Amino acid sequence: MHADTYRHRGLRRSLVEELRRKGIRDERVLTALATVPRHLFFEPGFQQHAYQDKAFPIGQGQTISQPYTVAYQTELLQLRATDQVLEIGTGSGYQCAVLLELVPDVCSIEYNQVLFESTRRRLAAFNLAPRLFCGDGSLGLPAHAPFDKILVTAGSPTIPRTLLRQLRVGGALVIPVGDEHTQRMMRVVRESEEEFVREEFEEFRFVPLLGQAGWNRN
After folding, report:
1. Which residues does the annotation mark as catalytic?
2. Can you give the pTM of this predicted structure?
């Protein structure tokens, strides 16, 4: 494992101040981003990019999300310490590590087998213990539902009903929805068994959510 130095911690503090200027207000979220060493989710040759507020390729056609995007989505979840959270799209594991700073119970599912294996090893090396799965995240994890919060870290053409049905009443789904170029961030709250309230937020650009209820490439 690479070192987390005083310099790295200083770079994170500077990044957090940048995110605060961009409108992130939840101090718990900002503290989580100040705590998680983002450079350790990069290959050694690319670690100089870790504390820039930008996405970066991690292989397999995927990216580690921009810190602002991670903070924005996490803030929209309005997490409580007792929440059971499902993350769709483990990716590098960075967003998952941020979630684990806020709640102890996180399930995360990754579509790509190669990425799943490398991220599983990375998180284990960091002594982080989410429940990790490899499979079609667009279908969620019905065997482990219901969830208090569901976070989707890939762009979907629609809001999958499969995920809505896995929310507890009072729970929330945060998901980017749109075409393959631009998505609008959505938050859907389950008010009752059959009633859902939808809110729309800023536009973002994510890699596509692959799977039966996402972009089906089969």
Report:
1. 65
2. 0.94
